[in-house]
Amino acid sequence: MKSLHTALELTERQKQIGICLLAGLSPKKIARQFKLSVSTVREHQACIKKKLLCQNAYQTGSKLAVLFGADDQNLSFYLKTLGFKGDHPHF
User: Fold this and answer.
1) Based on CB atoms within 10 Å of each CB, which residue in 19, 33, 61, 89 is the most buried?
2) How far apart are CA 87 and CA 77, in angstroms?
């Protein structure tokens, strides 16, 4: 239950960036999509890692996958919802 509670503590932007990172998008591509700097994306990435109590990117990805029910169909849906076009392997 702690994971669900923690997920609710993520900001909307952190959830968006988490989904993109989980889908394998680079911080540079995410920054372009949301009109942010790459350093801002990396700050969000660090906050996500801290809030999910993770020590590395692998743990963070694993927890995000569980939180978002990440399979190819869900990731494609999330990415389309966020405005990404069909230039990603999940499409």
Assistant:
1) 19
2) 14
| Number of residues in the chain | 91
- Distance of alpha carbon 64 from the chain centroid: 7
- pLDDT (tens digit, 9 = 90+) per residue, 8-56? 689 999 999 998 888 888 999 999 999 999 999 999 999 999 999 999 8
Three-class secondary structure assignment of the chain = CHHHHHHHHCCHHHHHHHHHHHCCCCHHHHHHHHCCCHHHHHHHHHHHHHHCCCCCHHHHHHHHHHHHCCCHHHHHHHHHHCCCCCCCCCC
